[in-house]
Specification:
The chain is α/β, with parallel strands linked by helices. The chain folds into four domains: 95 residues, Beta Barrel (OB fold (Dihydrolipoamide Acetyltransferase, E2P)), CATH 2.40.50; 132 residues, Rossmann fold, CATH 3.40.50.261; 84 residues; 65 residues, no CATH class. Helices cover 43% and strands 21% of the residues. The chain has ten helices and 13 strands. Strands 1-2-3-5-4 form a five-stranded mixed barrel. Helix 3 runs parallel beside helix 7. The protein is rod-shaped and about 190 Å long. The N and C termini lie far apart (159 Å).
Length: 413
């Protein structure tokens, strides 16, 4: 019978598929003793030991957890069995840890925390950035505690012009969570730049109001950025997880959020210098651009003026040439007309031996038939007039004297 040979990858895939499909190994609780506890990259790695065996555990994102165990402690861990193919190891992925013997209140806290976490109350995407400059600070805390004094002390040192709006609230005891939530709501509508929710530490029972759904949702729904400073450095509450930022103490909250007057003045001075430098550079650049534009416009205008001047000179030359030609042509035409007119001058004709006979009315006689025998006529000659009497009238064709006169006139013309 032929034996089947599996690859390592194949058998590891097979083992992982079996474990992933087994519902009895998902979301279960294990009791054991913590050993070899260590943290790396924000995660914790340890061994959970039983009486005769052990299992490797990994606890993700320890910086967001409310309880971190120590070696030798007996704990109850919640999570899912997983198979790591690359290392060929079975491990337990831990979602929460609680000390063995934890009371009902702590278990309810873990359940509420898990519920709010699934609803996105603690999501980083919902966190608002803290303002750069805070001039109006809202504080929700007890007016009788040291919190307000600590914040004022920091403000006096860093920024004396700070306006502090206090909403005095109970920070422990029955019903205090509703006062805290109301304080957050009031200061959110008061135009503050930032709200600090704070108390100066205490036992787990003292911090219970800050671990309620009422306060966590009030922080989540607040439009003003909130810094939570509840308890001491090792204590994490639901208020801390829902807030936009968390400080270990109220003093630390004031230190990280309030502006430093000296640093602010230095920042403004540097900013003004940067703006002045940028404006000067922009002005110098604009001036250079303006000078370049003016030079370009001037060169363009000068070029056009030179072009127009050349065109005008050519036009004047053409006008002068045409004017001279027209003058000469007109002068020649005038001379020709004067010559022709001079040729027809009656005086000049009379110089050639012709004369004009004037009747009794003083008008020239153009026809022999208009005269009468014995009529007195004036004869106009070149150099004077002669008065004569008509002795004889002969029309053309009857006598040769008129024909001879016409022939003589042709020759003279």
């Amino acid at each position: 019978m032929r034996q089947i040979i599996f690859t390592v990858d194949k058998i590891n895939d097979y083992i992982k598929n079996i474990l992933d499909a087994e519902s009895m190994l998902a979301d279960i609780q294990l009791r054991g003793e913590i050993a070899n506890y260590g943290e790396s990259g924000g995660n914790a790695y340890f061994i959970l030991k039983g009486k005769t065996s052990q299992i490797s555990c990994v606890y993700f994102a320890t910086q967001l957890r409310e309880y971190l165990p120590k070696d030798g402690e007996s704990c109850i861990v919640k999570g899912t069995v997983s198979y790591y193919k690359r290392g060929g190891k079975i491990s337990f992925n831990v979602s929460s840890i609680m000390p063995e013997g934890t009371g009902e209140a702590y278990i309810k806290f873990l359940q509420l925390k898990e519920k709010l976490e699934k609803q996105g109350i603690f999501d980083q995407s919902h966190k608002k950035p803290l303002p750069f400059f805070v001039s109006k600070l809202g504080v929700v805390t007890s007016k009788t505690g040291a919190v307000l004094h600590d914040i004022k002390a920091v403000a006096a040192k860093k920024f004396s012009g700070l306006e502090i709006y206090l909403y005095s609230s109970a920070v422990q005891g029955k019903g205090s969570e509703f006062e805290l939530a109301r304080g957050i709501e009031v200061l959110d509508g008061a135009g503050t730049d930032l709200i600090i929710v704070a108390r100066g530490g205490g036992s787990a029972e003292d911090l219970m109001p800050f671990n309620t759904e009422t306060v966590a949702r009030a922080v989540y729904n607040c439009n003003t950025p909130i810094v939570s400073a509840v308890g001491h450095e090792t204590d994490y509450t639901l208020c801390d997880l829902a807030a936009d930022a968390r400080a270990a103490t109220p003093t630390a909250a004031a230190e990280i959020t309030l502006p430093d007057a000296k640093q602010l003045a230095e920042f403004v001075s540097n900013r003004c210098q940067s703006i002045s430098k940028a404006v000067k550079q922009r002005f110098d650049s604009g001036l250079e651009d303006l000078e370049t534009a003016i030079n370009g416009i001037t060169a363009n205008v000068n070029g056009k003026i030179r072009g127009y001047s050349y065109d005008i000179k050519l036009l004047l030359r053409e006008i002068s040439y045409k004017t001279q030609n027209n003058y000469v042509r007109c002068e020649n035409l005038l001379n020709n007309r004067l010559s022709a007119l001079d040729e027809k001058n009656p005086v000049k004709i009379l110089k050639k031996g012709f004369s004009v006979i004037l009747g009794s009315s003083g008008k020239a006689v153009s026809s022999a038939s208009s005269l009468k025998k014995g009529q007195i006529v004036d004869i106009a000659m070149y150099d004077g007039e002669v008065t004569a009497q008509v002795r004889e009238i002969a029309v053309s064709g009857k006598y040769n004297k008129a024909d001879n006169a016409a022939e003589a006139a042709k020759e003279n013309l």
